[in-house]
Design goal:
The chain has helices at residues 12-24, 35-44, 61-69, 85-94, 106-122, 156-167, 175-183, 192-205; strands at 4-8, 28-32, 49-53, 76-80, 98-101, 130-133, 136-139, 144-147, 150-152, 173-174, 212-215, 219-222. It has two domains: 4-122, Rossmann fold (3-Layer(aba) Sandwich), CATH 3.40.50.2300; 130-222, Orthogonal Bundle (Arc Repressor Mutant, subunit A), CATH 1.10.10. It starts with a strand and ends with a strand. By secondary structure, it is an alpha/beta fold. The relative contact order is 0.10. α1 packs across α5, α6 packs across α7 (175-183) and α6 (156-167) packs across α8 (192-205). The longest helix has 17 residues, at 106-122.
């Protein structure tokens, strides 16, 4: 199946280089040199993945990512010349799936794009209610969680936390972001609440606790590991 990628980069030479590598892998490539053009293309074309530079004229990558996330969960790879941790956290909190720092290998970028698409296309069961990862099976319709053939009992908050992690498969989620999303912006607790619930959730998942990875000094990520 031919996929559509939108490459948003104001540096013409870099944009053409990225485009060439995607075309070699049989992607249909659409190009934009700034944020406003990217949003116009996104509204008209069915885009499967977005490669988005941060520092651009007219409308920066942060703003484009924020607007797209209001209506779409399309995979987004952000690219930037800045390597600061705060920038990466900002990107993930806005909903970016990957963060690539310049200079980078276009071949690796395309490989990451393909990996993102595999995650997105292989995450949810046919009916959208059955989620399966290794020996973990979550039936949203029945509101049940199974590991192998054993049903595990989760508290309402543990269940919400698990679904939130699954919804953001492959993304690094900061503790702040998890706390606000799962407990609410008006929750008066601190970040240790997230760590405590993750610890309890992992214990209940047993052998499938491997699905929840700790990202040092950042937060957590839910994904299959080899």
């Amino acid at each position: 199946m031919r996929r559509n990628v939108l490459v948003v980069e104001d540096d013409l030479m870099l944009r053409e280089l990225i485009t060439d590598y995607f075309k070699k892998e049989k992607w249909e490539v659409f190009e934009a040199e700034h944020g406003r053009s990217a949003l116009e293309i996104f509204e008209k074309v069915s885009i499967d993945l977005l490669v988005l530079d941060i520092m651009m004229p007219e409308l920066d990558g942060w703003s484009v990512c924020r607007r797209i996330r209001e209506t779409s969960d399309v995979p987004i790879i952000m690219i930037t010349a800045r390597a600061e941790e705060d920038d990466q956290l900002m990107g993930f909190e806005l909903g970016a799936d990957e963060y690539v720092t310049k200079p980078f290998s276009p071949r690796v970028l395309v490989a990451r794009a393909a990996s993102l698409m595999k995650r997105k296309e292989g995450t949810v069961g046919r009916d959208g209610d059955l989620l399966m990862y290794g020996d973990l099976r979550v039936d949203r319709k029945a509101h049940t969680v199974m590991v192998s053939d054993t049903q595990i009992n989760l508290s309402p908050k543990e269940y919400d936390l698990l679904l939130f992690l699954i919804k953001h498969y492959g993304k690094v989620l900061s503790r702040d972001y998890i706390l606000d999303a799962v407990w609410g912006y008006d929750y008066m607790g601190d970040l240790r609440t997230v760590d405590t619930h993750i610890k309890k959730l992992r214990a209940k998942l047993g052998t499938e606790d491997r699905l929840i990875a700790t990202v040092i000094r950042t937060g957590y990520r839910f994904e299959m590991v080899p």
